Amino acid sequence: MRIMNYIKNISFTILSLFLFQCGGKESTSGKNTCHAPLPQAIFTEKDSQIASHSFSLDGHNATEKILFSNNNTLTIYQSGCDKISQEFRFQMPPQPNKDMSSLGIESLLFLANLEDKFMSFGNWAQAIDSLRNEFARQNEVEVEKGFFVGLDKIDSKNQTTMIIKLFQK
Description:
Strand order of the largest sheet: 3-4-5-6-9-8-7
Shape: globular
Order of helices and strands: HEEEEEEHHHEEE
Helix content: 25-40%
């Protein structure tokens, strides 16, 4: 029941987050019409704690790169026409002792605390926290019918990469 309440609380956030980050114009190319809007940048260089920012768009695929003032980086890949996918790749100093869920929550809360307009990332952190047991068994968890969160953590000697994927199936 607790999980269902979290899912209900984030359902609007899920939809708004997907639309917020992909809020461009509908595209048409040849015979294929894509009903999803073109991806848009989530962040700008004017946002708090962002040292540099770039955004590139190639059809319905976008890459956004952010360097934060703490020297951590975030690369966001957005794609999809019928099924939208967003992958957040946080690169930071090594974090070998943190489990995948904890580091994912910490990374999303960092984004949520940048500015008020990013508070929806805090809802994602709450959803992951409420589903820790599921993430302990599998890397992808359905948070609402058709909407999934995937977590992965790659540790190396020089850095940790935390991958959070929000996607539809």
